Amino acid sequence: MFAIDLKSGLPIYEQLYRSVVNMVAAGGLEPGQAMPSVRVVAGQMGVNPNTVQKAYMFLERDGIIYSQPGKGSFVAEKSGAIKKQREQALIKLRGSLIEAMESGLDGEIIVGELKKLQLSRGEN
Amino acid sequence: MFAIDLKSGLPIYEQLYRSVVNMVAAGGLEPGQAMPSVRVVAGQMGVNPNTVQKAYMFLERDGIIYSQPGKGSFVAEKSGAIKKQREQALIKLRGSLIEAMESGLDGEIIVGELKKLQLSRGEN
Amino acid sequence: MFAIDLKSGLPIYEQLYRSVVNMVAAGGLEPGQAMPSVRVVAGQMGVNPNTVQKAYMFLERDGIIYSQPGKGSFVAEKSGAIKKQREQALIKLRGSLIEAMESGLDGEIIVGELKKLQLSRGEN
Amino acid sequence: MFAIDLKSGLPIYEQLYRSVVNMVAAGGLEPGQAMPSVRVVAGQMGVNPNTVQKAYMFLERDGIIYSQPGKGSFVAEKSGAIKKQREQALIKLRGSLIEAMESGLDGEIIVGELKKLQLSRGEN
DNA sequence: GTGGTCTAGACCACA
DNA sequence: GTGGTCTAGACCACA
Questions:
Q1: Dihedral over Cα of D41, D43, D46, D47: its sign
Q2: Quick check: B93 and A113 CB within 8 A?
Q3: Å between C68 CA and nearest CA of chain A
Q4: Is the pLDDT confidence value at A33 over 90?
């Protein structure tokens, strides 16, 4: 249903959050589509309903989904998810760049890594 | 003495660990040099000795320092620790770069972030 | 629950660590199985939770178990840990054999020790 | 003067003890020969006199050296040192064998290691 | 004095 | 309830 890894160390609600964001951004969840209910997700993934509820709360706060009382939760505009995903990617990237530079990795090596990845992705 | 920020959310022992690693990498602590004792660090930083002990334990485990009960703790050879640190930073950086590109962040934006960081670090 | 001997001189957390490693290696603890909680182990063995926590921390660091805050600790895949353990045992054994031979101990005496141990273990 | 490794983790007095035992057993220190005084050893090795004193105390207790009040310490019979060395090697070997077997290493593998070492030493 | 271990007990995020 | 962090304070071997 959603991709979570119990061994990853990341809180499960955080993994659920990201999984939904990524699915909306990638088109796996269409805008307007009904989200599975908290209980269904919890049941199918063998996870505590409180945990799913927490993920949904943050998703709504960030405008990735919206809830209609009595009807359930629905997927919001795709653009919001994409924006959020980029924000998160950028924050993480900044952290990695700082660590890389603090460890003495040269700027050229970093740009080299980037170019290698661009090439490999361009060839896919 | 060492840089820690109680509000950062990161555990204190983890901040101490990183602070020492960075100082060794930057040459602020020379190989063979005596580290300030667990009790001294605890006293000067207003932190419990157990917390400092925990940081020192991880530092020894990772070969950054070595301890001699009864004598004190000493900075280990620089090369091993630094090399390991760079490896880890590079692996993390690759992951972030892939995520950034998958989220649609442009290569130019990424290089831009790198340049911003280089400037801010160069000006320090 | 786990085998510890307060008189042995070895730290309690180290004995707990070894006991768990041996049980996983011997199949007494199956991969994926839930470990008894830190508090339960502490209570049943008459030991402080911090001490058990320390053992669990090292077990997780070495990939013998993995922890999920809020859920519990679980036995990890068997293969990785065991393989590592064997490697370390073999390296240590080689060192001991060299020392034994250098000190003039005969090969037959060494094999005799091995057979004695095999007998005593086979009879358990 | 004597072989000690500050990073080894073994107490220094224990390393001094072993170093003397090995030197007597190997003939580097002759029976009847005067041992360097505690102060000289401490001075030359940059070690606390208390530490050297402790090593000498155990060496005398185990009959490796003997002291003549007012004259100093002297190397005892070679046979005592050799016997002690073998004892220690055997104790260490037993520990390694137990660990090796607990980690699941087969008895044949262990004997194989022994034979490999015997061959390589026979060819030296 | 120095590192290392341990107890007792508190508080936190997460489930 | 569960793991994780932290304080306060004791005790030990070693130097």
A1: positive
A2: yes
A3: 7
A4: yes
